[in-house]
Amino acid sequence: MPLVPLVPGGPLPGLPRPPWQLSGRVYGALLNHAPERVALGDAAHQPPYKAPPRAPVLQVKPRNTLAGDGAQVPVPPDVPALEVGASLAIVIGRTACRVAEADAASVIAGLTIAADLRVPHASHYRPAVRQRARDGFCPLGPRVVALADVGGLAAADALAVQVAIDGQPAFSGSTGERVRGIARLIADVTEFMTLEAGDVLMLGVAARAPQARVGQAVAVAIAGIGTLQLSLVAEAAAAERIA
């Protein structure tokens, strides 16, 4: 499959060529980074759940959060900085229901990059809609790359991930060390919910995500896919531009 550019900006990055385009439904795995699970320590055994999660923990990034490469993301005036999570984003290519781990590659249309932005918060146990679902908090892009172009499924579970802020290195990691790699995540998620063509499933971010402030430029790079660019602007300034 050739590289497909995402449309910059706008409420929904579009993929204008058949047989699929983004549906606007984006799901993201939380607590899927093994070191992050370890770092929780005894907290994972405290109320309300009293045990680490056994099924995938998912967040939903609604349509208003979606943006494309080069997005200017508004930051609320009372928020000093946003956390910039870098995630591999799996674009689903066909209806996927109860997909076996061995068949997971067959439902993948391609891979792209997601910047999973959030207002810093400590709790994993309450729906953090206010912190995670603000306008523009899920830029995607800059293109969708076929699984084969990054070396296949095993290679995709070990791609280098870099985040730079104002051109300076701020995070270095990989898509590895996940509790569930790509195939197992698809298998476990589609065991209880159907994914459709154009849906996006984020593999999840690593612990110690860097923070960026208003006025700073962010670049999220994943080897073999490209670099997703965005910048943070004051929410009031963004509203004035719309008016």
Q: How would you describe this structure to a colleague?
A:
The protein is built from five helices and 14 strands. The chain is mainly beta and 243 residues long. Strands 1, 2, 3, 4, 6, 7, 8, 11 and 12 form a nine-stranded mixed sheet that branches. A hairpin with a 2-residue loop joins strand 9 (160-165) and strand 10 (168-174). The radius of gyration is 17 Å and the shape is globular. The model is unreliable at 1-18 (pLDDT under 50).
* Low-pLDDT ranges: 1-18
Oligomeric composition of the shown chains: single chain
Q: State the secondary-structure class.
A: mainly beta
Mean pLDDT: 87
Distance between the termini: 40 Å
Principal-axes shape call? globular
> How many whole angstroms does the radius of gyration measure?
17 Å
Beta-strand residue percentage = 25-35%
The helix content, as a percent range, equals 10-25%
Largest sheet: 9 strands, mixed
The tally of beta strands, per DSSP, is: 14
